[in-house]
């Protein structure tokens, strides 16, 4: 699950890789310093396959440049943290989101932070959730925005969790209201069918999913592996100018077990 970027990579592309599905985690002990809410709620014990912790490593290429990316879902004291990183010699991007699961199964976001450093140029974006007033406050160096929350509103990380849940359960249509850069945007997807991919982990049977965009020439496809709770195996995107990039799963662990085909 993945829309930011690099300057040298064209800052918009690498971010899409991140928002599209990449990677690494930080400990829950760091969450307060990132500005996440410390409000506690009763977590729902869950056997939801999409919520089983994992740690994944990806390799990506863009115009001949190599990018290493990681993605991790952790659970501590009833709180889930989904984290991603992507980096090479010139750039580094980190994205972290924390959420709870209500008894009804609804995702309740608790905080979101995005950081990037590209050739020394830095940017930070945050979403802080105020559940008492029912708003999400977006902030970056240049912008501050506020979104009135409603049930089902997700952010650029948590929608990826819900997408996997819906694919596992055969839900259709795949439509989400996502808070992106402080604005509410529709994210829509369509299942294209099944496809077997050649990967470093062997031939993997996948479900191919396309992101549906209106008035946009970009094309984005995702391949999820049903045998691994629909973890992302591959992402491919072509930009308006014809450039494209791809990320491919290299290795990983699901529920502390090494992924094997």
Give structural attributes.
261 residues, 8% helix, 2 helices, single chain, mainly beta, 16-stranded mixed beta sheet
Structural summary, described in words:
By secondary structure, this protein is mainly β. The protein contains 2 helices and 16 strands. It has helices at residues 12-21, 158-168; strands spanning 54-62, 65-76, 79-87, 91-101, 107-118, 121-130, 135-139, 144-148, 153-155, 174-180, 183-199, 202-212, 219-225, 231-238, 244-254, 257-258. The chain has a 16-stranded mixed beta sheet that branches. A hairpin with a 5-residue loop joins strand 4 (91-101) and strand 5. It is globular and about 50 Å long.
pLDDT < 50 stretches: 1-45
Choose one word for the global shape.
globular
Number of helices: 2
Radius of gyration from the alpha-carbon trace, in angstroms: 17 Å
* Chain-averaged pLDDT: 83
State the oligomer.
single chain
Which series of helices and strands comes N to C?
Answer: HEEEEEEEEEHEEEEEEE
Class from helix and strand fractions: mainly beta
Number of strand elements: 16
Q: Please report which band the strand proportion falls in: under 5%, 5-15%, 15-25%, 25-35%, 35-45% or over 45%.
A: over 45%
| Helix percentage | under 10%
How far apart lie the N and C ends? 22 Å
What profile does the largest beta sheet have? 16 strands, mixed
SSE inventory with pairings:
Blueprint: H1 12-21, E1 54-62, E2 65-76, E3 79-87, E4 91-101, E5 107-118, E6 121-130, E7 135-139, E8 144-148, E9 153-155, H2 158-168, E10 174-180, E11 183-199, E12 202-212, E13 219-225, E14 231-238, E15 244-254, E16 257-258
Parallel strand pairs: 9-10
Antiparallel strand pairs: 1-2, 1-15, 2-3, 3-4, 4-5, 5-6, 6-7, 7-8, 10-11, 11-12, 12-13, 13-14, 14-15, 15-16
């Amino acid at each position: 699950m993945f829309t930011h970027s690099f300057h040298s990579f064209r800052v918009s592309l690498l971010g899409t890789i991140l928002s599209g599905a990449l990677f690494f985690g930080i400990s829950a002990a760091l969450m307060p310093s990132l500005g996440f809410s410390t409000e506690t709620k009763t977590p729902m014990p869950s056997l939801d396959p999409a919520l089983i912790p994992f740690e994944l490593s990806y390799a990506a290429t863009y115009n001949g440049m190599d990018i290493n990316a990681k993605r991790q879902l952790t659970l501590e004291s009833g709180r889930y943290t989904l984290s991603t990183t992507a980096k090479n010699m010139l750039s580094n991007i980190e994205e972290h989101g924390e959420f709870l699961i209500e008894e009804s199964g609804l995702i309740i976001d608790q905080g979101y932070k995005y950081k990037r450093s590209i050739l020394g140029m830095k940017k930070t974006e945050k979403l802080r959730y105020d559940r008492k007033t029912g708003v999400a406050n977006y902030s970056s160096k240049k912008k501050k925005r506020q979104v009135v929350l409603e049930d089902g509103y997700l952010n650029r990380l948590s929608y990826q969790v819900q997408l996997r849940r819906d694919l596992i359960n055969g839900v259709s249509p795949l439509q989400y209201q996502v808070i992106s850069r402080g604005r509410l945007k529709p994210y829509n997807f369509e299942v294209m069918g099944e496809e077997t991919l050649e990967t470093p982990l062997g031939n993997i049977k996948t479900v191919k999913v396309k992101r549906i965009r209106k008035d946009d020439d970009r094309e984005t496809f995702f391949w999820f592996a049903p045998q691994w709770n629909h973890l992302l195996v591959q992402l491919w995107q072509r930009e308006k100018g014809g450039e494209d990039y791809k990320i491919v799963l290299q290795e990983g662990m699901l529920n502390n077990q090494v992924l094997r085909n």
